[in-house]
Amino acid sequence: MALQPRSEADLRDRQGRGQLRVSTALAFRQQVAAAGLEAAYAATDVVVASNAEFTDQASLVLNLGPSDPPIRIRRFQLDGVGGWGGHGSTDLVLPIGGGLVEPLRRGGAQVLTALLAGQELDLSARGDATALHPRRELDSRLDLDRIGSGRLLLHRGIVENGLVAVSSAEGLTPSPYGPLLGPYGTALYSCSGGASIGLAMPGLALLGPGSPVLVAGALGWVSGPGSGHQPQPRRLASGHARSPGAVAALTVELHGLRSEWLRACFFEGHGSALLVAIAAPVPLINLAVARQAAALDQALEAPVLDFSIPRRIRPSFGAVSYSQLLAGQIQVDGQPVACAPAHSPRLAASIAEELVSQLQEGRFPLRLPLVPLPNRPALVPLEV
Predict the structure, then answer these.
(1) Residue 137 burial by CB count (10 A; 0-12/13-18/19+): exposed, middle or buried?
(2) In this predicted structure, what is the pLDDT of residue 102?
(3) Full-prediction pTM beyond 0.90?
């Protein structure tokens, strides 16, 4: 009976009675190694997987109240970082990345962390005068309490798998993951392996529009397929992606974010980015889902790409296993290369434990998706 499939109603009933058995992805894999897959499945209802990766493909949307006289904001600067008006008269849209212009070295990532730290920031806005919005200029100051509502939009919130960045060029090569020493001096890998959301849940199959996720301590939601969504990549026999694969876009309310799970950074030659810790439940609805969640790092792999070539299709050096990456050294073109994580294992582990507690205490909704992420790829190249 214990090995029968489980329905959403079964899991929610156990959660309501305070009997939901939840484990982190790492602890579940250890349990499988010690007692076997069937015993671990029988003793676990939900596995929690987590990421803490860098992204510059995100936006901060701030909803402000009206001014007197009213203004329809078209362009603005907040703490020196430029953005544009949104769908409402006083909505502000600020890109998380950018900030390459010297001497600013700041983007929306730094503005977000300043707001969460309680700082008061200068706002300078310009608008197009109309009969109902006659004001052309607005200069004020904003802090978190003066923002009615806001959202962090993560256009590549959860990516099924990561990649390994190297450089064949001499010296330092900038990348979205940090500087790379070349030729083949260092490597940076963007995903943590089997404990990550996408490799514990191949195809992001248990996520869809409206699925709840924990984003930097706040309740967030999957809004749909993300930027670069590629649901049909090459896969291993186990179903796990061999490349970044499926992507989920996320939205989360600004005022619920907790700064302990967010880090703003600046990559020389690339710009600002945000390190965001995210956790998602993987309901073990059947033994097949449990088997995929228990995959070992030596059975999972990521592609190695040359970031010294600024093209859409980069030279590839094949794939390496996550066990090699986690050990700190890989082979590229026949030579050993030291590698390091371009993510935070500590923050990922921390937010996973937080979600375990919230699920066990009934403070986090547990649901299966009404509809899955679409099969249509969103990665459609621009041909020019």
Answers:
(1) exposed
(2) 60
(3) yes
